Structures are given as structure tokens and as C-alpha cells.
Amino acid sequence: MAVSLRLTNTLTRRTEPFTPLTPGKASIYCCGVTVYDLCHLGHARSYINWDVLRRFLIWRGLEVTFVQNFTDIDDKILKRAAEQNSSMTEVSERNIDAFHQDMDALGILRPDRMPRATQCLDGIRALIGELEAKGAAYSADGDVYFAVMKHAGYGKLSGRDLSEQQDNAAGRVADAEEARKQHPFDFALWKGAKPGEPSFPSPWGEGRPGWHIECSAMVRAELGDTIDIHLGGADLVFPHHENEIAQSEAATGQELARVWMHNGMVNVGGQKMSKSLGNFTTIRALLESGVSPMTLRLFVLQAHYRKPLDFTAEALEAAATGWKGLNAALSLGERHGDQLGWPSSSALPEGAIGPQTSPDDETLQALEQQFIASMEDDLNSSGALAVLFELAKPLRALANRLERGDDAELPETEIRSLAHRWTLLRALAVVLGLRGEAAAQSDLDDAAIDAAIAARQAAKAAKDYAEADRIRNELTTKGIELIDKPGGITEWIRS
């Protein structure tokens, strides 16, 4: 199946056709988390976006190898361990378990392999040794640094000019570490052991690896010298990914990645959401507050992956409303398939789906092609979602009628057409990682609901609109959706 995917490459600053190194295959490395705390919404955005990229490539027929690491050696982990009177290993293991729980809840496919820095020490030491032998690294008092001035391409990803940085750094106060460096922006490949910290043997003495060299070594060990796509958040462009490129390419003489992709940040009140700023919301807290996993996925996918995503209660509520309608359409076959006489449909696989047979119906074919065109246009997920909502419209209307207990009242040919529409909707939704969720069950009986509706109508008649809104909102929280119709009639469904 031909793939005409175009992706924005941070390295070239262009949106360009994606051509895999090996036809029909794609090798992808995604920078993972430093496991010192729970993941926040910024992490959710990144991993949902890259999950969709992976799913789409698989759906279009590519064999994808997806690798994502854990950084389990880091100053932040050591600090957290000290705060908790724990160990680096205990902190890491606890947060790795939490990471898996959160990602599983969001329907994010587990990577094919998830290496850890502590499991790649031999590869890290070997890579540092190669850099030192080539004159691209030097040792100083137990530390080993990468010599940025020895690498001609340094700054090509971020667009930074080293000579300007040198001038800007002139005259700054140097601490003991800075005094050992040949250039202010040289970075540590190996850090000499410090009292009370875990350390590992090396040719340069006891110590631990620097952050950047970990990813370079893991990419090389898992996928080779050159990969198709390297993923991460925009905050990793500099210094992490810039340094990763420099040390990998200095060692191998080969391009590290053909395409570099970076997702935009999540903003709260105009500021980037981050743990360092203290304005973050964890995935765990959002889900425990009642936000459904699919609502969160929909919220993320409504914005293009490269653009900032503004997190507000209003935006999240709008996503919840949108998901309620889409979920009703996605769940139609399972809830009412027998009543409609639809042929039994096997459950979709839990993971990604491969290439599917295109529908015969010309309208559905056009919608499928619109979905593909949106996704091939630099993963335009908002355009893809528009197709899902278009597919869902008549399905949602039918679901509403059936939930109220009405007959379908549709010709048999139309019922069959809607069955095909539902099948396509389900398949495209899975490409975006969206799956039907069980609706919240209300403990209200029909009489109680009718009484609440009557009270709301009385409040509206008395122009007490605040009370009318309160009643509607209370019913909504209990899984009851009101549908106001002309003539003052209000119908309801269990959503």
C-alpha cells in the first residue's frame, strides 16, 4: 500500500515526503521519561501524538519498530530518592510501573522495546571510548566531556551558532566543573563518582553516564547507526537532541536520524506546563477526577501536534462533550446491533490494525480518502477527527432514538448503509487510538428523571435560568443527557 506521508523535519525546517531507509519498514526512536515522578499532561500529549504516528504507519502497511527508553540514572532521580529516604532503583521501578499504568489507561501501545540506561552501560562506555579515540571527547579529573568545537555540525538542529555562544559566555563566573571544560558548552559524557551516589566502573574511574550519551547508545544498540524517525518534545531540541546528534555522528560518521519530529508544548495560563514550574497536572490526577481516557485523547488530538495546546477546564469540557457524541456512535453496534439486524462484528484487536479493505460505497470511500489525506499531511489529526465526526452524525442520531426506546424507522437499505458507515468509523477511530467506552450508569429511574425535567421546565418558566442549568448539569453528571426540541419538549437519553 502506497504511503504519501509528509512530515515536518525539525532538522531541515521543511515539511517533506517520508521515505524509509528500508522500503516497507520504519525504525522509530522516541525519547522516554526520566522516572522520578508521575507523568503529566505534557507527557500524555507527546506519547498520544507519537502513538498515532505509529498506528497510522501500521495501518498503511509499514512494518514499524518502535523503541522508547527509560532514563533511570539522573540527578532528579537521586534527589527524589534522598527526599524519600529511598534508593535510585526503588524510585525508578515505582515510576516505571506508574508510567505503564498511565499509558495503558490512555490506550497507548507499548513500545516494541523499552531499554533502560542502566541496562546499556557497556554500550555507553564503548561509545565514549570511540569518541575519545577520535579526539571528540576528553577526560578531566574523572569526568569526560564532548568537545563541541571539534564537531563541525554542532548547532544544525537548533540553529545555534557556537561562536556567538562563545562570545555570550565570555566573562561568566566559572565553577569548578566549568573550569575543567575546553568550551563553556562542552557537555558531560561521563560524570565522576560523588559521595553517596550510585556509581559504575569505567576506564575513567567510577561514575555514571551523562544524560545525552544514554540515548545515543540506546539508539545504536536497538536500531543501528541511522534510523528513520527520532521523536520528542520541542523542549528537547536543545540541548538534548543537539548533543545526541553531535556525539552519535562524531562516533559513526553517519546521520543519526533521517527525520526529527517534535511536538509542541502544553500551556497553562500562557506558560509551558512543566514540573519545574509547578503548574503541571498529572495524568493520574486527571483520570481520577473523572476525565475519561478517551476524552483526554480527543482533547490532545484536536490540536496539531506541532502547535501549542492550551489546557483549560473549558477546553477539556468541550472535548468531553465531543467524545460523548462520538462514543455513542462507536458503541452503536455493540449496544443495538441485534436490534438492527446487523451481522455480528468481531471485536477489533486491542492493538493497532493493519491495512483494511476500502468500503464499496462512494461516499464512504471519499471520507476514508479525506481521512488519509489529512493524516498524510503532517499528521493533521484535527482534520482526521473531522472525518470521524462526519461519519458519526447519522449513527449518533440513530443511537439517540434507540436509547429512547424508539424503533429505528429506517428502510433496510439505509440500515445496511449505516452498518458499513459504523464499520469504517470504528476502523478509523482505532487508527487514532479512540475506542468506545462504557457509558456511566445512572442510578436514577425514569420517574426521577421525568420529575427533574419538570422541575427544570418550571425553573425556566420562572426565568430562574441558574436553577435550570444546575438541574441539567446534575443530570449530566449522572449520565443523563437532555435534548431540547421545538415546542418546549425535552427528551433524554442515558449517555
Q: What's the count of strands?
A: 15
**What value does the Rg take, in angstroms?**
27 Å
The CATH architecture assignment of the largest domain turns out to be 3-Layer(aba) Sandwich
Query: SS-based structural class?
Result: alpha/beta
What portion of residues belong to β-strands? 5-15%
Going by CATH, the homologous superfamily of the largest domain would be: HUPs
**Shape designation:** elongated
First and last CA, distance: 39 Å
Sheet with most strands: strand arrangement: 4-3-9-10
- The number of distinct helices, counting runs of at least 4 residues, comes to 17
Query: What is the mean pLDDT?
Result: 91
Overall helicity:
40-55%
Uncertain runs? 166-174
Largest sheet: 4 strands, parallel
Structural features, described:
The protein has 495 residues and is an alpha/beta fold. It folds into three domains: 6-134 and 211-284, HUPs (Rossmann fold); 313-431, no CATH class; 446-494, no CATH class. The protein contains 17 helices and 15 strands. The strands form five sheets. The chain has a four-stranded parallel sheet, sandwiched between helices. Helix 7 (211-223) crosses helix 8 (237-252).
List the topology elements:
Elements (H helix, E strand, L loop, with lengths): L5 E4 L4 E4 L7 E6 L10 H19 L3 E6 L6 H9 L4 H18 L15 H13 L3 E4 L2 E4 L15 H8 L6 H5 L6 E6 L14 E3 L1 H13 L3 E7 L3 H16 L4 E7 L2 E3 L2 E2 L10 H6 L4 H9 L7 E2 L2 H18 L1 H9 L21 H15 L4 H23 L8 H20 L14 H16 L3 H13 L2 E6 L3 E6 L1
Parallel strand pairs: 3-4, 3-9, 9-10, 11-13
Antiparallel strand pairs: 1-2, 5-6, 6-7, 7-8, 11-12, 14-15
Helix pairs in contact: 2-3, 4-7, 7-8, 10-11, 11-14, 13-14, 14-15, 16-17
